[in-house]
Amino acid sequence: MASSSRAQAAPVADFGRLARVYDLLASLVFGRALRQAQREALQAGLPLAGPTPHVLVLGGGPGWVLTELLRQCPAARVLYLETSAAMLERAQARLRRHLPLATEQVEFRQGSEWSLKLGEQFDAIVTFFVLDCFTPADFPGALARLQAARRPAAPWLVADFGPPQRWWQRVLLRTMYLFFGVAVGLRAQQLPPWPTALATLGLKTRFLSAHYARFIRSQVLS
After folding, report:
1. Phi and psi for 23 in degrees, rounded to 5?
2. Does domain 15-221 sit in CATH 3.40.50.150?
3. Which of 115, 124, 136, 152 is least surrounded, with the fewest CB atoms within 10 Å of its CB?
């Protein structure tokens, strides 16, 4: 689970409390699976057509995905939208450290999908381990807002947890929701049906892969 976006009136989970240790915690539990899932989605969904494609990264956390995206799509202009100020600071520092020449290509904005400006449109949308953070009440509105910001035929890149198929996956998922509820105030308590919901929007799967005994999915839709 990554730093999430929330509906405008809803309390926001403060993933910044874990900013310093977030990547370490993820690797301790999942090894390389989370990053591999994200990397495969980026490889399948990028590069993009056009001289300067505009990409939205929602809830990107401490910034690994940003530098990986820019390495694969060097001409991209990126809106890095993140609710946590601490996560934004770490992402900015990582970009300056690893890709200093790309700093002018990225806008760092604190907020959720509700912080998108009227008329903003993107050539790709990236939501990695974000959809799992929405409550059932917030989920439909968030998807609709993101879909409205997506240019026609623009790819939507997803890496996230899929419906658990084994008993230990159900236990692990429940444990994660309990942990993040206590640690950062995450309100969600169950995985939303994001694969079905994206299909309902009319999006078709262009790429799909599975990791961690099919508990983690990489998907590119358009």
Report:
1. -65, -40
2. yes
3. 152
pLDDT digits (tens, 9 = 90+) for 114-148: 999 999 999 999 999 999 999 999 999 999 999 99
- The DSSP secondary-structure symbol of 83 reads S
Q: What does the angle CA 160 – CA 185 – CA 145 come to, to the nearest 5 degrees? A: 50
Asked if residue 46 lies in contact with residue 37, where contact means CB atoms within 8 angstroms, the answer is no
d(CA 164, CA 161): 8
Q: Among 99, 35, 22, which Cα is nearest to 61's?
A: 22
In the block, tokens 């890496």 appear at 159
CB-based contacts of 189, cutoff 8 Å, min separation 6: 135, 177, 181
Specify the residue for token string 């403060």. Answer: 14
Distance CA 210, CA 212 (A): 7
- Structure-block tokens of residue 15: 């993933």
**Helical spans, DSSP H, in 46-193:** 64-72, 85-98, 139-148, 167-184
Q: What are phi and psi of 161, to 5 degrees?
A: -80, 135
- Classify each residue of 102-128 as buried b or exposed e, where b means 16 or more C-beta atoms within 10 Å of its C-beta: beebbebeebbbbbbeeeeebbbbbbb
> Strands 54-58, 124-128: parallel, antiparallel or unpaired by DSSP?
parallel
Q: Compute the distance between CA of residue 200 and CA of residue 92 in angstroms, rounded to an integer.
A: 35
